[in-house]
Each structure stands twice: as C-alpha cells, then as structure tokens.
Amino acid sequence: MKQFQYVRPATLKAALDVIGKPGVKVIAGGTNLIDLMKRGVTAPDKLVDINHLGLVDHQSLKDITETKTGLYLGSLALNSVVSENNMVAKRHPLLAMALKAGASPQLRNMATVGGNMMQRTRCGYFYDTTMPCNKRVPGTGCGAMEGINRMHAIFGASQQCIAVHPSDMCVALAALDATVHIAGKKGERKLPFTQFHRLPGEHPDLDNNLAKDELIVGIEIPDNNFAQNSYYLKIRDRQSYAFALVSVAAALEIENGIIKNARLAMGGVAHKPWRLFDAEKALTGKQPTEENFAQAATLAMQGAIGHGGNSFKLKLAPATITEALKHAAGLV
Ligand SMILES: Cc1cc2nc3c(=O)[nH]c(=O)nc-3n(C[C@H](O)[C@H](O)[C@H](O)COP(=O)(O)OP(=O)(O)OC[C@H]3O[C@@H](n4cnc5c(N)ncnc54)[C@H](O)[C@@H]3O)c2cc1C
Predict the structure, then answer these.
(1) Which domains does the chain have, with CATH numbers?
(2) Count of alpha carbons within 13 angstroms of residue 297, beta-carbon side
(3) For the chain, what is the largest distance between any 2 Cα atoms, rounded to a whole number of angstroms?
(4) Which residues are near ligand 1 (CB < 6 Å)?
C-alpha cells in the first residue's frame, strides 16, 4: 500500500479546510475505504479521520436525536448503534431491519451512517485493477457488460456501467423519504435522499451528488405512520454476510382495510437505491391483497433489462416485491 499522511481534525471547519484537495480522502469506520486502499483501487496521499470532530450545531456527529418533525442520525452514528436504538426501533423498524440485514455485527460496529452511504460498488471489475472499469478508470470500458454480471443492475444502467449500489441501509432511507444534511465551506445544504445517489450515465465514476469538498453531517427521517406495517426483505446467496441480489423495503399505512400510503424501494438492482414511485401510486387506495401486490410488482418492473448473468433478477425482483409487501401487510 502507498504511504499516506493521517490527520485528525478537531472541528468541522478544520476538516472542511483540508477535504476536497487532490489526493485527500475522508475516513470514518474505514471498513470500505481501507479495503479499496489495500487493493490499489484508490491510493490517497492523505486521510482525514473525521471521528474526532467536536460538536456541530451543538451535537456530536455520533448522536441520534429527536427533531420537531422526525429523527436525526449524525453521520458518525454507528450502524450497530442505529439498528439497536429504541427510537429507531419504535418509529422506523424498516431502517433497523435493513441495517441488521447488512454485513456482520463486527462490521456494523465500525461502519457509520455517512460511510455506508458513500460505500463503493461491489462489482468485481471495479475491485480488480487488471480489468477494465469505467467507474475506476473512466474510458477503459465496462468488463461486466458482457462479463460476469450476476450481481448487476437491471434498472437505470448505461453503456458505461451496470454496477449497483450495495447498501441495505440506503434502501430503507430512500423509502422513508429521508433528507441528507451536507456541510461545505459555504454552509449547510439539504438534499432529498432519493437525489443523493446518481445513475451512471456518462459519468459512472461519480456515485452521488456530494461535492469533493463537502461532508455528510447527518440524515433526517420525517415522522410517518409506517411503523406497524413495514418490512425489509433481502434475497442473497447466504443467509448472512452477503450483499443483496435483490432487496425490497416496503412500508404501508393501512386504514380501515385500505392502503392510505405506500413506500417501496429496491436494492441490488440499480446504481442507486431504486424507488418504486409508480407501484406506490398504484397501491394507494387499494386493499392490501396478494393480487394487488403482484400487480404493483409487475408495474414496478417496467423498463427492467437483463444482461445475461443477472437476467434471473427479472423474475426474482417482482417476486421479492410481492413477498415484502405481504410481510409488511401481515399476510404472512
Ligand atoms: C465483508 C463485507 C460485507 C459487507 N456487507 C454489507 C451488506 O450486506 N450490506 C451493506 O449495506 N453493506 C455491507 N458492507 C459495507 C459496509 O456497510 C460499509 O463498508 C460501511 O457501511 C462503510 O462505512 P464506514 O464508516 O466504514 O466507511 P469508510 O470505509 O470509512 O468510508 C467509505 C467512504 O465514505 C466516505 N465517507 C465516510 N464518511 C463520510 C462523510 N461523513 N461524508 C463524506 N464522505 C464520507 C469515505 O471517504 C469513503 O470514501 C460490507 C462490507 C464488508 C467489508
């Protein structure tokens, strides 16, 4: 591994002064970044450890706090801590389920909210520096397009890249209409979670819309009425410690036997958490039946494209949507 400098700023301002410069990378839990450095996928000159930043807006970036309209997760809150937090369990069990479906207890004890959002794809061609990959080295081609693409995207891919975003947590946060709080030298800005990650288009090297000189400081999840009827279903090769082939975050608000509101997002199928807006609309005002769920799932699959190795997802994805909705509605 290339030698690098390591700094530990004590304030947000000091961190923002260094990040964004060429060769500088932020490190939080290190569970993704260090792997990428060991494999030579990235080779920073300087690591900026953000674990020792002081208070930002009077609170630690590790805190989970109530706001007037929801719950705020600091970007350094650990995945394990968020998943076990009482307020999260009570108000957003979907998020707790998604987090617990990810990685392993040891990894969740190191991984942070911000790091989880920023983790890179698990595409084998991205990790193998002897292979072409437009995400790692723009202009070199996409090995997965005609190669081994079992884990890859069926929605929103481009000629440049068919990689998927690997996070479970982000699928739940996309469904829950979270907002990302971002700090930069010019101040703080907010971005809807569904607009944080990008589709690959002509620039698969960019995973999201965070500028190089910005930091994620937190996530806000608005209050909702989904706690009673939500479910995260992850289909993977092993029962634990494996990334999703397909996952579904399903949340329903059911009143007098009718779906008043629905939220659906999928993981393992696109370069970003894939929100199923049309299926949500189709479910609104309907009864929570298996037939209606299957119809919504069929609608959700419009525009899906298989690339050979991943074509099994064209059947797996709608089946997973239907099953997740059945669980959320208490039908199984
Ligand atoms: C074997 C293995 C299995 C895994 N399985 C799963 C799984 O099933 N599901 C799943 O969801 N995840 C899984 N993961 C991924 C794991 O969840 C991520 O590695 C972790 O969430 C990254 O968080 P971190 O704090 O360690 O990030 P780091 O490794 O420290 O950083 C990752 C990236 O985020 C950037 N970054 C970190 N914090 C900020 C911030 N506040 N603002 C801006 N940029 C920031 C860093 O610069 C870096 O580019 C797995 C990982 C491993 C190693």
Answers:
(1) 5-52 (3.30.43.10), 227-329 (3.30.390.50)
(2) 23
(3) 63
(4) 25-33, 35, 50, 75, 79, 102-103, 107, 110-112, 114-116, 118-119, 166-169, 215-216, 243
Within 13 Å and on the Cβ side, how many CA atoms surround 39? 16
Say how many Å lie between the CA of residue 258 and the centre of ligand 1. Answer: 39
The reported pLDDT for the residue numbered 55 is: 83
Rounded to the nearest angstrom, the distance between the alpha carbon of 291 and the centre of ligand 1 is 38
| pTM for this model (two decimals) | 0.98
Provide the terminal-to-terminal Cα distance of the chain, rounded to the nearest Å: 50
**Which atom of ligand 1 lies nearest, measured to the CA of 32?**
29
Tens digits of per-residue pLDDT, 11-28? 999 999 999 999 999 999
Task: State the pLDDT at residue 58.
Answer: 80
* pLDDT of res. 99: 98
Instruction: Looking at the CA of residue 234, tell me the nearest atom of ligand 1.
Output: 8
CA 209, CA 205: separation in Å to the nearest integer?
11
Beta bridge partners of 25: 47
Residues 65-106 have pLDDT tens digits of: 999 999 999 999 999 999 999 999 999 999 999 999 999 999
Closest CA to 274 of 173, 136, 133: 173
Which amino acid residue places its CA nearest to atom 19 of ligand 1? 32
Give the 3-state secondary structure of residue 273.
Answer: coil
pLDDT under 70: residue ranges of the chain: none
Q: How far apart are CA 96 and CA 98, in angstroms?
A: 6
